Amino acid sequence: MNYLEILRELYGVEKVNFELKKMGKDRLYAFLKCDKKDELGIKEYHQGVYFGKLEKDGIRLSIEGCYLLRDEIKKNLIEVSYEDAIKWLKGEDLDIPYKGYVVLKWRNYFLGCGKGDGKKIRNYVPKERRII
Length: 132
Known about the structure:
It holds the Pfam family Methyltranf_PUA. By secondary structure, the chain is of the alpha+beta class. It is built from four helices and eight strands.
């Protein structure tokens, strides 16, 4: 599967400076190849940072995935207000009429990726990363 093609279609990304690897539960991890891993005694399983989840209709980026692509995202990027950023970080959905996957940003901070149904954007911020 060509992940760059999906990223180009969804987010307007033309290039990535890392490799992507699909692991359990359709999760994608970003990593840089290491030519000296045998020499250094590094095992390969579970390398990289969590990039996002491969869904049947696209890639839902993690917060880290949004940051890795921060200079490449050209579409489906919304800048939200401070109030909406706080709601999002509390785990609330946002009442923004948008359809499809979207990356949310407040100033220079990437808040993660959500999916709009045309009425609101569904929040995927993990519970352990939410603010109280």
